[in-house]
Amino acid sequence: MALLAAAGSALLVTPVLTFGQFPGFGGPPRPGKPGAVIDLTGYWVSVVTEDWRFRMVTPPKGDIAGFQPAFGFGLLNAAGQKVVDAWDPEKDTASGNACKSYGAAALMRVPSRFHVTWQDDNTMKVEADAGTQTRLFHFGASQPPAGNSLQGYSVANWQPALGGRFGRGGQGQPGAAAQNGGSLHVVTDHLSGGYLRKNGIPYSDKTRVEEYYDVVQEPNGEQWLIVKTIVVDPTYLTRSFITSTNLKKQADGTGWNPAPCSAW
Q: More exposed terminus of the chain, fewer Cβ within 10 Å: N or C?
């Protein structure tokens, strides 16, 4: 009896551990750099294995495969079709709009090298050498801008992997290999209008972009960044435009070559 009583006393004085005290066991993740569940920093390069003719070269005017009406329900509506029909890269260049296909709704899809760093503990910086563009991902409370811009305003948060810190796949890529922690979730608005493809397929200033960033570690040591992008635009699109883009980790900045935007 004395032994049982002692055991009971030990249970009574044992501290109660709550979910959230350990990574991957519930509770909201911390924002920004201190709460990172995956490491996105470093240099990454696009690996174009799909949509080559739309990404590596500028498609001819009117070539909107994947957006055109199909069975009466295409991605592009009538207003969007008018923008496509009026596309003129010479006019875009002359008016200072050569960067319209390098906005946040399309930038990660542009063949490029990307450099990811922390500007500060609550701001991740993503630089692209194509078009010499910079995106900023804001964690925690921050004040959005009054106006719109090419890269808009991005709010980011960490999403721990399903099944715990070392579970299989974050929300962005639920069927992928072990994600070493989870995904980065980014929502971008306050965008100025731009092009989803270089030949004038438009998105408007009402667009909202949602992204999931996942890092996949291969057995041979290679690291891949998979970016799932969901573009919602009530002005020009009839439904969400969804893509999945692959980037490969580079050992250093070899090949980094910032270049100006091109309307062609």
A: N
